[in-house]
Write the structure tokens for this entry.
Amino acid sequence: MVTRRVFLAASLAAPALPAPNALPGKVIDVATHFYDTTRPQGVPWPSPKEPILYKPSLPDRYLAAVKPYSVDGVVAIEASPWLEDNLWLLTLADRTPLIRGVVGNIAPGHPDYSAALDRFSKHPLWRGIRINGANLPGYLANTRIMNDLRMLMEKNLSLDILIGAPLYPEIAKLAEALPDLRIIVGHLPLDDSTGMRTLAARKNVYAKISGVVRKEKGHAPFALLDELWDVFGTERVVYASNWPTCDMVALYPAVFQVMLDYLASKPRELSEKYFWRNATAVYRLSG
């Protein structure tokens, strides 16, 4: 039987010839995960029960996955909660020109948070950390954790927030409390106009668009993307594939093609901003 994922891959991944306006001069993908399931200590994520994900996912495999398209650089997100895996990812970045920035995983409130942030932020590719949005209600009520997050702002680093539950007011409250902290929220778009507008009202919040292919509904409606562009503006939307997790729904070319199709009728400058210029600005990437 053909699985839903394979069906979506077949129906969406066949690359169409995009309009010239849609093709950017450069592509920076700000949501990739690299890990090696064959290393002696294994990995805490993903689980062996997820065969689509549980295989070595390294830059060479990523570059093969993006074809027939090409990507010039990525921001790698550390999903492992093991503190030393931040060093593993930084070491991989040191020998991989594709990786332009690293977003680490240090839990605010961890006893070693301050020392670890000081240590890893000395690396020139370190860009900040990611947190799970589900933890925000507790974070906002905890002075120590808020001080930990304030350290990101003071070091000119960024904060990625992974959202699942509708905690948009909490994200907006955090953005108001730390107005100079660049906050990047994924995986958008949301099927919630009020939620998107609540987030977009805070000018230090950026939209990471990595939820454009859905398990049950094909790709996100273009009207929803129009609304996202309208409320965030052209300067605060960034391209993200969420590779290799996207493989659980559709293969990389399908994800990329949706956005090429969406931008085909837009001015070329919008494509340039979305696919790389905005990422360069929000993550303070060089080159």
